[in-house]
Write a structure and sequence with these properties.
The complex is a heterodimer of chains A (414) and B (299). Chain A has 18 helices and 8 strands. Chain A has 414 residues and is α/β, with parallel strands linked by helices. A two-stranded antiparallel sheet of chain B has the order 1-2. The chains are: A alpha/beta (414), B mainly alpha (299). At the A-B interface, helix 3, helix 17 and helix 18 of A face helix 13 of B.
Chain lengths: 414, 299
């Protein structure tokens, strides 16, 4: 073998090696999501990506995390370019996730739902958000959060309340009993607009019913022509004046939680994440919960989703990754890392605390949801919705004027 | 020889010294400003590939349909008027006091200046806690004095929230005015003060006819800076109230940010920014020309 041929062979071998390396890393997948405050969540994400890479040799999964606002901005910047993620995190709902769907950034996943039989795996309430968009099913659930009324058992007992209310009117009666006993019925923090908004959302569901509520949120009916809308604002006004621990407009949600734990108010309208917070702050046995009694058999909640980008060069691989991510085996292995409960209905829960079990029963009971107003409305309407709610809750706007103000804004939006 | 002559030309030297800064200024200040003006004539949400030209529609919407714009405008005017009057006045009083040979004056100067170096968002966080109606400092003090009925929802009551936020702003900004006035006071001719005193002038007369005229340039700088910083007031309000309750403490700068970066209506946000720019120029330029003429007339 001459020196020349040896060099040539070495070069060829090197070339093949490089080519091989190139081939093996040809399949890359990028997922953009939020920073996780919990180290357990970061570890769970790393575990999932490593597992997927091991099960699919040659595939490299890159997770890019950012703060909430940076994440939203990054997706908008990427929207104007050919670059961007294969999969991105976003809340479900017409207001947030829906905006990106409307802009054509989300790939319809109907064929993957059928191919991977995701509906057989997913908690129905969590999966239901994928159907709210036009033009097919978009995104798959990452987490699902239900919201309900937590209550302080001792304060309920002190007020002579022996059972949980079966409907909205009974809830108001209980709130009145609490007031008579000198106990503020519920705590809210007004500086974060979305907290008091929750009360308006659930009252709207109770007073208007499911269909009308959805129509109002979809802005397909006139807020001023639906008496239930004005009635709902009137109820909000009543709660603000009589039953909410005051003052509440100048404190935030975290402070309202401190007040609730301190026994200054009997109830909080919070999500399933509160169970862990209550466990850390006090004795879980002191509290219990029940879904807000709207009478519509729908659960109040919201979901966080993973969407496949229309700009993904490998949507099949993205769908495969999401299938792996949400599979029973993987979800079982990371149970409790992202949320109290899994979006996979086959996951087995051991050693559940009573309140966790109650949540699980709730999730398995409800197959329909109505979502938070800030995720149902477009962003500009959400901002006005916040303003109007806060004006009513502060006693600065009459309920009838509130419906008119919101409708005027919607009409001006065109 | 010719090249040496070129390099020794003061105009060339000036151009060389100013050039880099000018390039940076054009790229990072002038161009974005022009881009914002341009964007204010378009409808764009940052997602759509095409910006839609809408003419003056964003301005019309802002002036006639936006339920918050005029609240933000009014608040900005109130904030500016208060900013021009109160912090400079307190700053001047502090400077006059700390210009006297009193014990520990350097320490006191540092203490009064300290809030200036704290980030406004940190100041907001501190004051938010102090304003907390349940556990806050003011509530505790009033309660301990038996004045519980005086405890208010400082940041939640729309009638007082703006002024509560302004209180935090005053605490943070008086030190800056004080330092400028202190610097100005070092330029007051001591022989003139002494001469006035020998002529029988009292403290007020010395201040009115000797000290104050000598501080005219400093006063102009302090007021112009107060106007500019108050017109673009953002961070402390954002940190304290976020514009609430019910947008009652919104400011033009914060509302422009909200429209662009939270609602993602870049056209409308740009239109509000252009209005704010116009208001700023409409106030600052005539004021500076007026003070310039007065200074020229007095020379």
């Amino acid at each position: 073998m001459t020196l020349t041929s040896a060099v040539s062979r070495a070069a060829l071998a090197g070339g093949l090696l490089l080519a091989g390396t190139s081939l093996s890393s040809a399949e890359e997948l990028t997922l953009w999501t939020l920073n996780f405050s919990s180290e357990a969540s970061n570890e769970a994400f790393n575990k999932i990506t490593s597992g997927f890479e091991a099960a699919n040799p040659g595939v490299k999964v890159t997770i890019v995390t950012r703060g909430t606002d940076d994440h939203k901005t990054a997706i908008r910047v990427a929207a104007g370019t050919d670059k961007g993620p294969d999969i991105y995190f976003m809340w479900a709902g017409l207001g947030l996730g829906g905006e990106y769907v409307k802009a054509g950034l989300s790939l319809p996943l109907d064929k993957y739902y059928a191919e991977y039989k995701w509906d057989d795996e997913l908690v129905p309430a969590a999966a239901s958000f994928s159907r709210i968009y036009e033009g097919g099913r978009h995104g798959v659930p990452f987490t699902f959060k239900g919201e309900a009324l937590y209550y302080n058992k001792a304060l309920f007992e002190k007020a002579g309340i022996t059972g949980t209310p079966a409907n909205y009117d009974e809830l108001v009666v209980d709130a009145e009993k609490l007031k008579a006993a000198g106990i503020p019925a519920i705590a809210f923090g007004g500086t974060v607009n979305w907290h008091v908004m929750r009360l308006m959302d659930v009252i709207l569901e109770a007073k208007c019913g499911a269909d009308k509520h959805d129509a109002l949120m979809n802005m397909t009916v006139d807020w001023t022509k639906e008496a239930c809308a004005t009635d709902s604002f009137a109820e909000l006004d009543k709660w603000a004046k009589n039953y909410i621990l005051s003052p509440f407009m100048g404190i935030d949600q975290a402070q309202s939680f401190n007040l609730f734990v301190a026994g200054r108010a009997a109830m909080m309208l919070e999500g399933d994440w509160l169970v862990q917070q209550l466990a850390e702050a006090g004795n879980l046995d002191d509290y219990d919960l029940f879904p807000f009694p709207t009478g519509t058999n729908r659960l109040y909640g919201f979901a966080e989703y993973h969407y496949v980008s229309t700009k993904s060069k490998n949507p099949d691989l993205a769908a495969k990754f999401l299938d792996y991510f949400n599979s029973t085996e993987v979800q079982q292995s990371v149970l409790g890392k992202f949320s109290t409960s899994s979006i996979n209905k086959h996951v087995v829960y051991d050693n559940l605390r009573p309140m966790d079990k109650k949540w699980l029963d709730i999730f398995n009971t409800y197959d329909k949801v109505y979502m938070n107003g800030d995720q149902a409305f477009p962003l500009d309407v959400t901002t006005e919705y916040f303003r109007v709610i806060n004006e009513v809750a502060s006693g600065n706007m009459a309920p009838a004027d509130a419906a008119a103000a919101l409708q005027t804004f919607i009409a001006n939006k065109g | 020889m010719a090249s040496r002559a070129i390099w020794s030309d003061t105009r060339v030297q000036a151009a060389l010294l100013l050039g880099p800064a000018l390039v940076i200024y054009v790229v990072f200040a002038v161009f974005p400003m022009l881009d914002v003006i341009w964007l204010s004539f378009f409808k764009w949400n940052g997602l759509d590939p095409v910006k839609v030209y809408v003419g003056s529609a964003n301005y019309v919407d802002v002036f006639t349909k936006d339920p918050v714009f005029w609240v933000a405008f009014r608040n900005t005017v109130i904030w500016t008027a208060l900013s021009v009057a109160i912090p400079p006045m307190i700053g001047l009083a502090l400077a006059l006091g700390l210009n006297q040979p009193i014990f520990g004056r350097n320490t006191l100067r540092a203490v009064y200046y300290l809030p200036v170096i704290i980030a406004p968002i940190a100041v907001a966080t501190m004051w938010r806690w102090m304003y907390d109606p349940f556990f806050g400092l003011f509530g505790q003090i009033l309660t301990s004095l038996g004045l519980q009925s005086w405890v208010m929802d400082w940041l939640g009551d729309r009638d007082i929230a703006l002024y509560s936020a302004f209180g935090a702003y005053v605490w943070q900004s008086v030190g800056f005015s004080m330092v400028l006035f202190l610097a100005g006071l070092q330029g007051v001719n001591k022989s003139l003060v002494e001469a006035a005193r020998i002529d029988g002038a009292g403290r007020w007369a010395i201040f009115r006819y000797v000290t104050l005229p000598a501080l005219r340039t400093t006063l102009t700088i302090v007021l112009v800076l107060a106007i500019i910083s108050s017109l673009k007031a953002f961070d402390i309000v954002y940190g304290l109230t976020g514009g609430g309750p019910a947008q009652s403490t919104q400011m033009l700068a914060l509302w422009a940010f909200t429209q662009s970066m939270q609602i993602f209506d870049f056209g409308r946000g740009s239109a509000i920014s252009v209005v704010l720019l116009g208001v700023t120029l409409a106030i600052v330029i005539p004021y500076m020309r007026w003070t310039q003429k007065r200074e020229e007339a007095s020379e």
